[in-house]
Design a protein that fits this description.
elongated; 416 residues; 22 helices; mainly alpha
């Protein structure tokens, strides 16, 4: 009978542990229910009791509540404490969140090595977000030795776990041959997987491929389909492309009103190209009321971001006085801004203004320099005007022009 006696007490302990576990799980269900219905005071109390008892899931939830300020004042230090308790018990969600706090310096000094350690622990448990974040660290050599091979491996694991961002990163690596052999077929496969998993960037890039016939048969209908899916998710680039297709009637019936609608959505998000094109629609009165003041407002928003076509268009408005007071000095200033960014049409016109002394002091050397830059981009008028000046300028003046052009060329290449 001795063997039976020896096993009775462990069995009783096991039963007690089972009952305690069942009670804790029941309390956790109640806490989750309170959280889901927005009764955060009750949820916080229940989670704290369970967390004090050592339940990792409750500790992780407390960490998230303090991190996000859900039902409590945000407190990154407390969030980190609770995440650490849960993470040390092996809770993968707490591990990845703790890793992210170290990664970004949220409530703690940034520590990429600690981030990599916590990401790795969660990643080895199959947490896709941790796998992706660990891949990022290897990709950029932060907290670990840089390794495209390791980055690819962890991105692939995360992608197989269904993470669309990882699918996109794989696509880009295969597309660019970023540390690995380029593979257009693999790139397209992963772009498609990411797009089908609602990644708006992948949908936009897939739309561009169909739009341009890059690696796939050109198909404007499919391009518009992918653009629209991304645009409906708020992707500014996709909204611009939808607007552009309606603007020029590319694959769809031309509809300037629809173009203006999509441009406006992207422009309100700060996309310079959309702001400039919306400004042009207002200047031309296409799809919207003709309004040069509104056109200038949108052009300025794009121009202030350094968008050369918008800077050029502002120059045109001031040069012609079309809806704004004519000001050729202001026109020259804007042509210069665009020209310094390599915009050839602005370079041609600024050269003319220097040659004729409009808005600037007459200066054939400056004219020659600006026409030389535009001529390099194939502008026929610039070639003709430059060649004519070649016959009238002295060798010293031609040398000065060359130095000016070289300086402008170098400055242009340095601008984003």
């Amino acid at each position: 009978m001795l063997p039976f006696a020896r096993f009775q007490r462990p069995a009783a302990l096991a039963l007690a542990a089972f009952l305690a576990c069942s009670a804790a799980q029941a309390d956790l269900v109640e806490a989750d229910a309170a959280y889901d219905r927005g009764d955060y005071d009750v949820a916080l109390s229940e989670y704290r009791t369970l967390a004090d008892g050592g339940l990792a899931r409750a500790q992780a939830m407390l960490g998230s509540m303090y991190r996000s300020g859900t039902g409590v004042d945000p407190n990154a230090a407390l969030a980190r404490e609770w995440y650490t308790l849960a993470a040390e018990q092996g809770h993968p969600g707490a591990q990845v969140n703790l890793g992210h706090m170290y990664d970004t310096g949220e409530g703690v000094n940034p520590d990429k090595e600690a981030a990599a350690d916590w990401y790795r622990r969660a990643a080895l448990q199959g947490n896709a977000a941790a796998q992706f974040n660990l891949g990022n660290l290897y990709d950029f050599g932060e907290g670990v030795e840089p390794s495209k091979t390791q980055a690819l491996e962890w991105y692939a694991r995360a992608a197989r776990g269904g993470l669309a961002d990882a699918m996109l990163r794989l696509a880009v690596m295969y597309d660019r041959g970023d540390g690995i052999d380029a593979s257009p077929a693999q790139a397209l496969t992963w772009y498609r997987h990411a797009a089908e998993n609602d990644n708006a960037i992948a949908q936009t890039l897939l739309g561009i491929r169909y739009d341009q016939g890059n690696g796939v048969e050109q198909d404007k209908v499919k391009a518009l389909k992918w653009y629209r899916l991304a645009a409906d998710q708020g992707n500014a680039d996709a909204r611009f492309y939808v607007g552009f297709m309606y603007d020029v009637g590319d694959g769809v019936a031309e509809d300037n009103a629809k173009a203006a609608k999509w441009y406006r959505l992207a422009a309100d998000q700060g996309l310079d190209r959309a702001q400039a094109n919306l400004g042009l629609l207002h200047q031309l009165g296409e799809g919207v009321a003709k309004d040069n003041i509104e056109a200038l407002r949108w052009y300025r928003q794009a121009a202030e971001q350094g968008y050369a076509p918008a800077q050029y268009n502002i120059g045109n408005l001031y040069y012609s006085g079309d809806g704004v007071p004519q000001n050729k000095t202001e026109a020259a200033n804007w042509y210069r801004k665009a020209g310094e960014r390599g915009f050839a049409d602005a370079q041609v016109l600024l050269g003319l203004m220097y040659y004729q002394g409009e808005g600037v002091e007459e200066d054939p050397v400056q004219a020659h320099a600006w026409w030389s830059l535009a001529a390099e981009q194939g502008k026929a008028l610039a070639v003709s005007n430059r060649d004519s000046l070649d016959e009238t300028l002295t060798p010293e003046q031609l040398a000065q022009s060359g130095a000016i052009a070289a300086s402008l060329r170098s400055a242009s290449s340095a601008k984003p």
